Amino acid sequence: MSNVIEIPFETTLLVRDSCLCLHVQRAARAVARRFDEALRPLGLTNGQFSLMMSLNRPEPAAMGPVATLLAIDQTTLTAALKPLERRGWVSILPNPKDRRARLLSLTPSGKAVLAAAVPIWKVTHAEVEARLPDGNAERLRRDLLALS
Amino acid sequence: MSNVIEIPFETTLLVRDSCLCLHVQRAARAVARRFDEALRPLGLTNGQFSLMMSLNRPEPAAMGPVATLLAIDQTTLTAALKPLERRGWVSILPNPKDRRARLLSLTPSGKAVLAAAVPIWKVTHAEVEARLPDGNAERLRRDLLALS
DNA sequence: GACAATTACATTGATATCAATATTAATAAA
DNA sequence: TTTATTAATATTGATATCAATGTAATTGTC
User: Fold this and answer.
1) A99 CA to chain B: closest CA distance, Å?
2) Among A19, A34, A37, B129, which one is least packed by beta carbons within 10 Å?
3) What is the pairing mode between strands A98-106 and B98-106?
4) What is the rounded CA–CA span in Å between residue A6 and residue A56?
5) Given 1.20.140.10, 1.10.10.10, 2.60.120.10, 3.40.309.10, which CATH number is that of B9-147?
6) Which residues are bridge partners to A33 per DSSP?
7) Complex ipTM, two decimals?
8) pLDDT digits over B7-30, tens only?
9) What global pTM score does this model have?
10) Residue ranges per structural domain of chain A
11) Interface of B with A in 43-102 (CB under 8 A)
């Protein structure tokens, strides 16, 4: 007799076809690759673009709210800021009113890179959105927000 | 006069609110964290679960088709297999009919872990799906597939 | 059958991601 | 005002991700 546990192949097919986690990871990777490729001439990745765009505020941002907005761990944000700071696109200053906190802002060259990225974003985003049936984008955004 | 390029804050808000890339990355991270947390007692991440499930086939799989199915780069698959092989959950054998290729299969202990993960997947998936309006899951899957 | 082109996979280097933990500063309670 | 708690961020270690590139084996062409 065999003691080997076998998962029915039908279960595998069910998980493959229905798993929202797999579906969303897969779409996230594919969309990320499209934006990464389009932004590559600027030396930006999709994540760096989103991060820098979220720093484009009237007032410098603290780290916590930015991490929450992007739905990333705070430690991920710390790591993600390093290459941007090294390139001189983001400035990270201690907050004099709370010395635990940091003030995050775009430098002039950071703003210039981001401004150059906006038209690329528009074109790429239109291409991605065109892959969806008409009118589905808004509902998709709502559903993705519900999962976040 | 100032030479600093300023991106209108309204542009930032537009990108934040409408960017499908940001939305899907954010949802992917949030859903991944849920599954990772649920699967943690087994020592599995969501990605490892999906990978191992995709290896649960009647015949051993080659690397290329698995990478395509998961929409990951082939080099990512090479890296992702290493911890699974090290733990004895996946076997990676040369294909005698094509010595460039590999035969990927689950070991008995890999099958056991995967079998233990299935009920966890079911519960977690139901929780995630419950966050969506009734009937939206199927359309969401189709839209995510269209973006992949 | 030799050689060019293609295919399948691995390696390297950089960044992304998170859990666990540590550090430092602000706040609240005694 | 100590002291305990909470809050904001950093560090470490492991895995994930991809581009660029390298290696080896197969296939197609002559």
Assistant:
1) 28
2) A37
3) unpaired
4) 53
5) 1.10.10.10
6) none
7) 0.90
8) 889 999 999 999 999 999 999 999
9) 0.90
10) 9-147
11) 46-47, 50, 53-54, 56-58, 69-72
